[in-house]
Specification:
It is a single chain. This protein is of the alpha+beta class. The protein has helices at 15-27, 29-41, 54-60, and strands spanning 9-10, 13-14, 64-67, 73-79, 82-89, 92-101, 104-109, 112-119, 135-139, 142-145. It folds into 2 domains: 9-42, no CATH class; 54-145. Helix content is 22%, strand content 38%. The strands form 2 sheets. An 8-stranded antiparallel beta sheet has the order 3-4-5-6-7-8-9-10. A two-stranded antiparallel sheet has the order 1-2. The chain is globular and about 30 Å long.
Length: 147
């Protein structure tokens, strides 16, 4: 690339650099336009998302780990009505996307719609958790509690 007749500096950059940049932008204008469209359509980062509303407050308090008997557990992450559930049973952990619905978190497991809901130890249907008061249950016999 040749130097332009003037060797003035434009914003601290020589004219040569400016000429190269302007040429690059002329060639890449469709790419820049596509990038602008993609950025505009992107979902906001979690830090930019609105604070959870009262509608999701009941299920957002469930975030964290809930333990069951024999090493089983339920991990709930996310918030604001959208969650990632990790259910670890005797076969190992599996992860599912979930969504708040009324006072539960619904998700699909093996083609079946399941729901996580609040209960006490007796409501889990598990004798090991019967004396607990702060529990979640997916199905009778599949319960998790925490203090």
């Amino acid at each position: 690339m040749r130097w332009r007749a003037s060797e003035q500096h434009l914003g601290g950059a020589p004219t040569l650099v400016w000429a190269r940049l302007s040429k690059a932008f002329r060639i890449g204008a469709p790419s820049v336009a596509l990038l602008a469209v993609l950025v505009a359509c992107a979902e906001p980062e979690p830090s930019q998302a609105a604070a959870p509303t009262a509608e999701f407050a009941a299920t957002d308090v469930w975030l964290g780990r809930w333990t069951g008997p024999e090493g089983t557990y339920l991990d709930i992450s996310g918030g604001g009505g959208r969650y990632e559930l990790t259910v670890a049973d005797l076969d190992g952990p599996r992860t599912f996307p979930g969504q708040a619905q009324a006072s539960s978190i619904v998700f699909e497991r093996d083609g079946t719609r399941e729901a996580v809901r609040a209960t006490d130890g007796v409501g889990t249907g598990m004798k090991w958790l019967a004396d607990q008061s702060n529990c979640l249950v997916i199905n009778p016999g599949e319960g998790f509690c925490r203090p």
